[in-house]
Amino acid sequence: PTAIIHTSMGDIHLQLFTKECPRTAENFCVHAKEGYYNGHIFHRVIKGFMVQTGDPTGTGTGGESIWGGNFEDEFHPSLKHDRPYTLSMANAGPNTNGSQFFITVIPAPWLDNKHTVFGRVTRGMEVVQNISIVRTSPKTDKPYDDVRIVSITLR
Predict the structure, then answer these.
(1) Is 130 part of the annotated catalytic residue set?
(2) Which of 52, 56, 110, 123 counts the most CB atoms within 10 A of its CB?
(3) Record's GO cellular component, any one (predicted)?
(4) What CATH number should be reported for the domain holding residue 55?
């Protein structure tokens, strides 16, 4: 399946790896369908690295899975952070996936087998790029002007 993240800066089209990461994809899709992500800000943006969202509190400490709490990592040998525009789960250590996710703008091999890769951007790379260069607080990496998820469409 594909997902389109409608952001305040444009649309990001994603291919989701449901076969390789069934639980991660299910978590994302159910949250998306139920509108959980609607209105969430990109709370952490690091120029030349990645953009992160999916936290209802907008602080980086919130969010939970569709099952409540956290769920396990799903690493797959063929899915690596080997190129820009990789969709991956944010976490606080092994098996602590909740609702937060990020999209890279560079290859980031040091994240392999630490963060679950569950999709790739197929269109709207320039939107991800534009989000990644907004002005942010040097202390928190939070954009000064909110960039939001309006909604997510699943196909």
Answers:
(1) no
(2) 52
(3) nucleus
(4) 2.40.100.10
